[in-house]
Amino acid sequence: MTAQPSAEALPEVLDTEAITGRLAGIVDGETPLRVVAANVLGRATGPRIVLAYRTVGPDGGGPTLIGKIYADRERARRLHSLLAELHALDLAGQECGVPRPIAYIPELGMAIYVAAGGRTLDQLEGRERREGVVSAAHWLAAMHSSGLGLDRRFDLAVESGNLSEWAQIVARQHPPLAEATAHLLERLNWLGHRIELSTTVPIHKDFQYRHIFVDHGRVVVIDLDEARSGDPAFDVAHFGANLRLLALREGMTDDQLGVLESAFLDAYASRTGYRPDLRHEFFHAYTCLKIAKQLVRGRGPAPVPTGAELSRQLELILEEGMRCLQA
Question: Mean pLDDT across the stretch 179-194?
Answer without folding.
Answer: 96
